[in-house]
Amino acid sequence: LRREFSRLLRKNNRAEPAVLYIPDAAIGEGGQEAVLCAQRSAELIGLGAHTVECLPLKSAQPSEIRAKLDTCDAVYVDYGNTFYLTYYMRSSGFAGLIHSAVKQGILYVGSSASTIAAGPTASIAFWKGWDDPGYGEEWDLSSTAD
Length: 146
Prior knowledge:
Elements: H1 2-9, E1 18-22, H2 24-27, H3 33-46, E2 51-54, H4 62-70, E3 74-77, H5 82-92, H6 94-103, E4 107-110, H7 113-117, H8 125-128
Parallel strand pairs: 1-2, 1-3, 3-4
Helix pairs in contact: 4-6
């Protein structure tokens, strides 16, 4: 997987590939933003990224997300709480923006929560039984059509 990520990251033949890192799912599992950003940045640089920008969706505006997507080659969305991630992907506007960006050639990489959240529904996360659905929290999806 590491070799394939490195190969795909360089598919646009850019000498200095840029990655946008989305930590929200891991934050939803109790991860600390600064620690996550530092760890994942080092890992992604080790896989061939020249620069890594960390963008928590919880505090991001659509215009900021769009600007970051316009300047990156890949987006790495961390694993963690599917419901937390899905809520902030939708409320920030990222969900719609990333679909357009992928159609234009940006690489979307993730695992577990981030792959579920990229789909049409987060309901499959109930099957895992690992994620706190956040009932009563800001990111509670139970009142949505999901």
